[in-house]
Amino acid sequence: MTLFKTLLTVALAGLSLAQPVTRRQETGGAAGGGLTDLQILQFALTLEHLESAFYSQGFAKFPPADFMALGLDAAGIEGLTAIGKTEATHVKVLSDVIKAAGATPVEPCTYDFKLTNAASMIATARILEAVGISAYLGAAPLVKDPAILSAAASIVTVESRHQTFIRTASKAAPVPQAFDAAIGPLQIFTLASSFITSCPAASNLGLTALPSLNVLDAGNIRGGSMLKMVVPSSAAGMSCSFTTGDGGLQFAKFENGGCKVPEGLGGETFLTVTTETTGVKALADAKIVAGPAVLVLS
Predict the structure, then answer these.
(1) Bridge partners of residue 140, in order along the sequence
(2) Helix, strand, or coil here: 244?
(3) CA angle, 131 as apex, 127 and 37 as ends, to 5°?
(4) Residues 271 and 249 sit within 8 Å (Cβ to Cβ)
(5) PANTHER family given for it (predicted)?
């Protein structure tokens, strides 16, 4: 923690970063945005607030016995609570370094995680940790200061440990693929906004979420199956894009209210309906019709 804080403090010391976070919607996926390093830190803090609140609310709602009923032993429950503590630490350190830069850290929002039982908490944690990892990877190319990039890398490695622990607790393969997917800030914000009911006015990141994508029968997804979904609007030449760390972008034609899931996908996969097709390395936010949504495949 001390090294992380020192790296960020040194990195911010020479920067004039006190401007408010008011950037408009990006034009490119993981490579777009034109965000400053401070804005990226505020974005990271927004996500860490969400994750910290998630674990805090979940542990307040469900006693250890509920997790034991899922098969976790005392050591497993201790490991799960440790995840929540590290998320709270990330919040504190990011807040401190943003203050050191002369700016006001974004505040927590009001959240609705729709947690009905301990099993739903584990399932949601699996998605949130996957989103967190992809958020840091997607923002990495935008960071200008090497020290901030190094410090952010020290967070994403911990998020990866969280994800492995959660996957193991879910009785899923701990490492389903050799790589994780990088997802751009606006698409990550869209995913996060599904858990946010309201935010303080001063915590407005200046982003507008993309239209939501409602996947039907999301509990039984496999390669080669038809995936049905509800898209709020339509456009000519729509396709489904599937983003994974191993396979990059894969596309399938959108027809009859859905698309066919490509073979060979694994882990947490990001589904987006877009007007783009093959031949692109990153989705342009402006061409996204709806999404992303997170598919849990293995």
Answers:
(1) none
(2) strand
(3) 160
(4) no
(5) DESICCATION-LIKE PROTEIN (PTHR31694), STRESS RESPONSE PROTEIN RDS1P (PTHR31694:SF8)
- Fold (CATH) for 33-175: Ferritin (1.20.1260)
Q: What percent of the chain has pLDDT over 90?
A: 65
What residues does each domain of the chain span? 33-175, 214-296
pLDDT at 223: 84
Tens digits of residue pLDDT in 171-230: 888 988 889 999 999 999 999 999 999 999 888 888 899 999 999 877 778 888 899 999
Using CA atoms, how far apart are residues 291 and 4, in angstroms rounded to an integer?
Answer: 33
What fold, for 214-296?
Answer: Immunoglobulin-like (2.60.40)
**CA–CA separation, 72 vs 62, rounded Å?**
13
Reported in sequence order, the residue ranges of the chain that DSSP labels E, i.e. its strands, are: 110-111, 196-198, 214-215, 226-230, 239-244, 248-253, 258-260, 268-274, 288-296
SS3 readout for 34-68 = CCCHHHHHHHHHHHHHHHHHHHHHHHHHCCHHHHH
Give residue 147's pLDDT: 86
Instruction: Reduce the DSSP state of residue 167 to 3 states and report it.
Output: helix
281, burial (CB in 10 Å: exposed 0-12, middle 13-18, buried 19+):
exposed
Token pair, residue 281, equals: 């390395």
Q: Is residue 24 packed enough to be buried (19+ CB in 10 Å), middle (13-18) or exposed (0-12)?
A: exposed
- Please, what is the end-to-end C-alpha distance for the chain in angstroms? 33
Q: pLDDT by residue (tens digit) across 17-69?
A: 333 333 333 333 343 457 899 999 999 999 999 999 999 999 999 999 999 99
Do residues 199 and 235 make contact, with C-beta atoms less than 8 angstroms apart? no
Contact 281, 249 (CB under 8 A): yes
* Model pLDDT, residue 130: 95
Tokens of 74: 């005392």
What sign does the CA torsion over 19, 20, 25, 26 have? positive
